[in-house]
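Why does residue order matter? Because the sequence determines the fold. Keep that principle in mind as you read this record.
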Amino acid sequence: MKTYEEINKKIEAKKAVVLTADEIIEYVDKKGLEAAAREVDVVTTATFGPMCSSGCFINFGHSKPRIRMSEAWIEDVFVYTGIGAVDVYLGATQLRHNDPANMTYPGEFSYGGGHVIEDLIAGKKLQLFALSYGTDEYPRREIRTWFTIDDLNQAIMVNPRNCYQNYNIAINCSERPIYTYLGYLKPQMKNLTYCSAGQLSPLLNDPLYRTIGVGTAVWLAGSYGHVYGEGTQHCSIVERGPNDVPMEGAGTLALTGNMKEMKPEFVRGVSLKGYGVSLALGVGVPIPILDSRILKWTTVRDRDIYGPVVDYSDDYPQCSGNIVCRLSYEELRNGEVTIQGKTVEVSSMSSYAKALEIAELLKDEIKRGDFQISKPIRRLPVNQSIKQLQIREKE
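Structure:
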């Protein structure tokens, strides 16, 4: 049994034993669970893929004369201004002004909120255009200027829902092709797509949220971020396997971090044909090995993680709750699977290679003493369900 304080002392002394979630499996096979639990201090987990519920708060500072922005756009992408005078919130899925969307189906969605965030972190010069109705203390009614991230007072990523713990595997059972946030799906179950780093994914390595909670320090696209709450749609009451791993989408994380410290290669705007825009993001989460049970969870393998295959032509849009079957991540990584006697092509929206790179980077930072673990100030909800939006008549 170790404590957070003991592990941080070893990190500070650059003596911590740190392995990635990929490495720990073989290590425990060789050493045994109890011996490895005594030796290993931290296991690093990671993921890289589209996370639509992402965005950022930006503060521009005040112009002369001042303006209270009531409407604003960055590179013609609308930003929310219903907060302080020169604060705005940019959402990753916001479309560019006059984007034809799906007027000509399937739309291309070439640029949007996720791309602005990518360009901002890459240091590109961007255009701000804002309007105001004018007030006594904020007399300016219009402003157009160019800026980079270095000109901003704050650029803070605030993501309501990241790092989904397991997720749907999308398939199309209809007779026509469809375009979804999980990519292009051919008719008659000719292909399927999924989006998870499987055995590397943070919440699949801590299935009951023993160490990942509110206040946990995370590696957010290269910055030192943290978990500020349970993510939206966090649903911990789900069917779980004998290893405590959910058999469907379950927990989520709300994350925040300083965009000025982020690395551009881990923040990418995404165009999803026929669906919209998003943001692909890299997240790493360290798991302190406080005891052997926590270590056991980090040895989860792709073969022990099952996701539900869902028909996105009908069952998903209609919220039927039906599933076609369940598949393990080991099966998915083979590149093709067999469902109902048919051979089905498999592709991933998530990059395992990029996730592994993040897990290695985080491991190196911890071993150098540059990244300390943090004890959660509150555990994520473990008995929480999810509600649906009810459509009612006004009484």
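DSSP finds seven helices and 22 strands in the chain.
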